[in-house]
Amino acid sequence: MTAEELQQLIASGLACEHLEVGGDxxxxxxxxxxxxFEGLRLVARHKKVYDTLGxxxxxxxxxxxxxxxxxxxxxxxxxH
Length: 80
Known about the structure:
Layout lengths: L2 H11 L4 E6 L3 E7 L8 H11 L11 E7 L1 H6 L3
Parallel strand pairs: 2-3
Antiparallel strand pairs: 1-2
């Protein structure tokens, strides 16, 4: 899997206002900004992202994904 493919999977299942994906083909990191995270705790946000990957975590196609998830309001307040 490529970073572009992983980014496309996440974006196809989650309305993202900002999405960055990087990694080495097995270990990935993502910064995801979505209005869909509004009112959700961290675990629920991560579950929403994992849901976009379907069985790719279980099949080990995506071995590890480290995430930073933000609402648009949280993203706007981050230090620049």
